[in-house]
Records
---
Amino acid sequence: MMSKVAHGIVSNMRSILPRLEASVKGGLVSVRSTSKRPELSEHFTLDEMVANEKLLQYDEGSKERTELETALLGVLNRVEHVPIVINGQEFQAKEDFQQVLPYDIQQPIAHYGHAHRVLIQMAIDKSVEAQVKWDKVRLSDRIDIWERAAMLIAGRYRYNIIAATMLGQGKTLRQAEMDVAELVDFMRINPVFLRELANYEPIRDIQNNCRNSMRLRGLSGFVAAISPFNFTGIAANLAYTPALMGNSVIWKPSDSAILSNYFVFKALREAGVPDGVVNFVPAEETTFASVVTQHPKLAGINFTGTSTVLKVLWQLVAQNINFYQNYPRLVGEGGGKNFHFVHSSAEPETAVACTIRAAFEYAGQKCSSCSMLYVPESLWQNHIREPLLEITASLVVRQDATYCDSFCSAVINRRAYDRIYMWLRYIDQSPSCQILVGGSCDKRRGYYVDPTVVLVKDLDNIICREELLAPILGVYVYPDHKLKETMEKVAQINHGLTGSVFAQDQNFIEEAYDAFRVNVGNLNVNDKSTGLMVGQQPFGAGHMTGTSDKLGTPHSLLRWTSPQVIKESYKTHRNIFYPYMQINDQEQGIAQSDMVSQDESSFGHFNSDGNKVV
């Protein structure tokens, strides 16, 4: 059964678009029936139900648990070769790299190479060629491919993708299952939104005079998809949402997620995505960015990562704006500084439980992970401090993410570990910071960082402002009488994907709606900042953390289409003059015959003063 929230979203879409469509469709039946050409746009019946993918429970002895255990052994016992794939042809780079387990860096699971500039250029050329053909494929045929892909990923490919995500990206079972379920949602729900968009027709106020229609074209050129390590589902969505809309894509996966991403790529090829529509091009970051942003056929960049990298991409595009054949579409999401703000009327147990999960699940590496907790003095000492610290200290950080009692595992790679280590050193030396629990790390076997809670006494400290992407939670205790002042400060310094407020006082909740209207893309009430679901809580950042294009909505699909409006007139226009000019039919006929008989030079003559008159 579809959830009430998901049903509401689809129902609302159905109530808006078909209503507008109905206003213009009434007089089109006879017109369409006489047309001898194929339809330029497609229309769909909207009677299907849609729901989020059900999460499997993996109880001991269950079929899914047995299937997953087999898949985990399969990934561990074989070092998979991941090729560069351009237009269906596999290439191997000279230099070989390995994807290793973040929690056991001596154990590789895949080896791969980086595409050099010539291969990236080849991928661009093949993408541009493929886009012309792919854009002409009917929407219904594309939708069929995506629905087959959803079935394959939810079924036969599910356990291999989950296993690669757990092992290669260091996710626990639940986190990996949620990730793959999100991927299925993207593949299943985006086609529903495409049907909604395709059913729109422009208004026609005079029946039988003309027909107005709109077709959804892809962008001319190619789209570069640059995906992150932390979500397999988002990585695939960055590549395949533009493809669904008629674009060709060069997908640069993260080195730290390359195996799970490659399994998804294989599933989509099996589902029927033609060669060249999505090209799988692992590459060094700066080389890839340099080549794609210097090409005149760049049509767009779809990116998820950090705000710093997004700014670099934006600058590279701006530097080359005079050379492009399009205005490239730039879609980017960064995590930013997500926060939990607790009011004195909040339930402490709810605030503590939600904060621990939001801050430390997946070692704080989600783009929506909670990085700051704001607590009133009236709740901190007696209600929140002790359970927050005790539970955090008891969390199991396993050397093996596949153990079911593991709450989180190692951080993704050496670069992340070194960055987090520097943050911990700064915190230890800062006079306005005090580590309450955690603070240690170890890289001898894997990249381990203990869940850490830091008391911050100064809101101007960099810990309160910067995205950490780490299992580090900053806590600021504010005086109850400075509630509004603190909220204003938080709105200034915390720009992120998600903010959460915890309160039972409805007046405060209304104030929070206003105070945090701009600085976050999603605002949750009495719930954690993580766990947003496709179609139910579409996500996109606020302020300088992203373009807020709301993945999992029709809005995100519209970013990847260039609609063309077509007007077919059935009542010919022969009048040159308007009625208010009071020129009768006879004069109009004489004027027209005179104009037709004269050559082009006769339209200008000279008056008595010698001035040329048109």
---
Amino acid sequence: MRPLQCVLRAQRCLRRGPLASVSWLLLRTCRAHSSVPSSACPRPERQQEDGVWKDFSSRLATGPTFQDFLRSASVPPEKPSSPEVEDPPPYLTVDELSGRQRKVYLETYGCQMNVNDTEIAWSILQKSGYLRTSHLQEADVILLVTCSIREKAEQTIWNRLHQLKSLKSKRLRSRVPLRIGILGCMAERLKEEILNREKMVDILAGPDAYRDLPRLLAVAESGQQAANVLLSLDETYADVMPVQTNPSAASAFVSIMRGCDNMCSYCIVPFTRGRERSRPIASILEEVRKLSEQGLKEVTLLGQNVNSFRDNSEVHFNNAVSTNLSRGFSTNYKAKQGGLRFAHLLDQVSRIDPEMRIRFTSPHPKDFPDEVLQLIHERDNICKQIHLPAQSGSSRVLEAMRRGYSREAYVELIQHIRESIPGVSLSSDFIAGFCGETEEDHLQTVSLLREVQYNIGFLFAYSMRQKTRAYHRLKDNIPEEVKLRRLEELITVFREEATKANKSFVGCTQLVLVEGPSKRSAADLCGRNDGNLKVIFPDVEMEDVTDSGLRVRAQPGDYVLVKVRSSFCAFDLPSEMGVGLDNLRE
């Protein structure tokens, strides 16, 4: 390439790209060709071109240098905007990134992590100038925080989008255009399919892209679809203080880690939530302190694999003594070393406010070392309730699921937990009809339900997910009617055994954290005991223990002593939802 062509190339790039890129291209190209021998590039009009070259060289020598394209090292003058606000992208102004008082309507589907994600997303949007509305018709932006764990969960979102389609088409032209966004796991899993199938969807944001919501919405204002579904190796939103969607709630979720490395063969979570990473302990403790100062009485520590927490944010944390796995359990990944573990976090959180209940979900059975169990037993404010997902009672199926344990190891852990924490309440997850499950495998799951007698259970028919190991290596060869029949059998046995287990509470006095009015009767209140069982009791005046002469009505956030008189089932037999016998009556 001749020098003159180099100039023209740079000028064309200048019209297409950012100035810094143009300058780099121009300098590199010209230097490369300045060393080419003249014989390699004949020049019939050498004198004319030499003049052009000298003119260009002189302009280049007096022009900007590389340093002109770097940020100044000096402290920039203070701006009136908040220091937390990052510089806008070069194609958007600060005003375009602002919410400008537009109203956001948020709908949450799926697990507790999605509830927490909703609070994180709203915190980010609120800081950008958006307003919150609880009325769909008032909304300028509708965001659905989605779940992708089963086919039915995704179908619910597709159906909801069809309902919102008419709302968008009927939007008055006098109002700003309605924007609709899909957030969370379904956005991450389906990506382009959503944008291509539903043209009315304006934005997609995966679980690690909520910080980008203001930009995505600003791009959507120009009429374009916008998406960010990049997964991160380090995003934990540690510096984002979630804004509770229910300000009157007595409890809150605190996310302590994100993602999962277990790679169970049936599970989509590692592909929609990414690799496992933990928040720094300091940021978690600060959030819990603020919630305590706000008067909240219960905190649930959240994570896809919450008890595998490992804080490596400080170098000296890597010298921490490693904890062991539960006896008879293994992992699908290389053993990790160092870091502050879940027992350390649980200890520190429980010390912040002795009157604040501490729960955690969802754990993996492999990560219950003795120090965690001992801590739960010793601390009065750490709830004596453990969720212990089994998924199946068959060792053969557990191996196909890549759970890292056998039935025997699981039962031994159950016995050890009950010995370590007397009176502990247990809950679990089960999948009916996994790939290759035989009737004998199914009966082994039935027998595990009878043997353990869980207090609460979540049971589902298997739903194959793309990208999972089961999708690539196994066959979903159990007919749907067989899955549903097995599911109903599991539910029936679970209800029978949970009835027996929960009858042990009848006649006992339970400390109950009041949540609010009962959905079954306006004359009743409901709350939960230490074992996370729902307790329903009359909304009547009662004695205030702090003042024996005062009679008051219980309010959300109050602790009340309730004597249990009966227990009953909370759900009928569904086919596609988790069920649990978790209701006690005063």
